[in-house]
Design goal:
mainly alpha; three-stranded antiparallel beta sheet; 5 helices; 53% helix
Amino acid sequence: MELTAKVPSHCTETYGDDGDPDPFQWDTREDCEVRQILDRVADKWSLLVIALLDRRVMRFTELKREIDGVSQRMLTVTLRQLERDGLVKRTVHPVVPPRVEYELTPLGGTLHTTIRSLVTWTEQHQNEIAAAREEYDAREATTAA
């Protein structure tokens, strides 16, 4: 069986009529590296793992206990993907039974900073979002009636 390395595909920057980069250019290309990375880091399990590993090392069982609703399989898949992307470091200690610990890499730490900014924005605007949702739901209820 021959194994070949999967070469990442890169999207070329496309520009809109106004000369600015088209923010949706990556969304139309399944093989685009940007889309793949965004899909990975924006899923809920990855976000939670990255948030929990901020400035601390955790074992698998600790992560599983802290992340409500994640299955053992999904946590395993998420950690492997984050490790493959260079965001999480996995350390196996040679003891019986083996002890495995996870921590953010420096690259993962930079992503955590971005995630923290997103959470801060959400906290600052949650009341506005709740009001917009109520207004939308009321409008939809009136339209449906």
